[in-house]
Amino acid sequence: MGQHLRQRLPLGEPLGRAIIPLILGLSRRAMVYGGAVSHEQSLAGIKVHYFRRAGRPRSDPTLPVILIHGIADSALTWAFTLGGMARIGPVYALDLPGFGQSGYPPGQRFATLDAQVAVLRALISEVLGRPALLVGNSMGGWIAARLAAQTPALVRGVVLLDPGGALLEGHASWAPFADLVAVRDLRAVRTIYRQMFGTVNPALYLAQPGFQALFQRDAVRHFVESADVAAFCTPAELQQITVPTALVWGERDTFLPAGSFAFFRDHLPNPHVLLLPGCGHLPQRERPWRLVRFVRAFAREL
Predict the structure, then answer these.
(1) Taking 90 as the threshold, does the pLDDT of residue 122 lie above it?
(2) Domain holding 58: CATH number?
(3) Residue 52, exposed/middle/buried by CB under 10 A (0-12, 13-18, 19+)?
């Protein structure tokens, strides 16, 4: 079926561009119906949007959880996990600057990694008022690891889901990834599908133009183009993290540069590790209930 759809889908097909907004709209409705409340606030000089879900009965009000999405994504990626995470404590699902409903830094069309970290730091300091458990996917894991290394007093623990930002061989490792996520044609979209998802739903092939548009936004394109070696996570940086850490990895994830999993596994300080067979780059979408169980067990040890 997937091959059939690939052959029939013309570039710019209106239906293909409508599917992603439809999915996001349904995810937003699920978040709101599940008890999430939408908030906007200026953080680190940027208008930032986030969802807050109150903790469930018998959860710990002193252990807030912050969910941090990856590149080309938004807070809506956590729609299937928000309710389960609320069994830990109050949950905050953040739209990073330039994504979802959050704005850009003044005078710019993207936010650097340092700017993203500053927003996360401000959210904890100014809104939560207490250290938080950070759960970050892909670029969100990169941001969470950087904050935990720089400002451990704001962090109770870190759970990294297929995190990006491994130094590896520097730009030699980053360049093929950067070239792919430029998604210059629909062939690149299909390659990303195969690398990102453990199992590609054939219906995704209808959404190729909309998926391509997500990666061609300024917030993604300029971030990828501007990333320099100094922004990447080094072994020394990961080793200086003093809070408890956990690493979740989808075994079928080939979206990130090869060697990324081993880099984090070997350099994080004694991480709890969960490998998910048959899962790709987005455990929160592909294995939400298994992920929630793991994070809840991790949180009980904090």
Answers:
(1) yes
(2) 3.40.50.1820
(3) middle
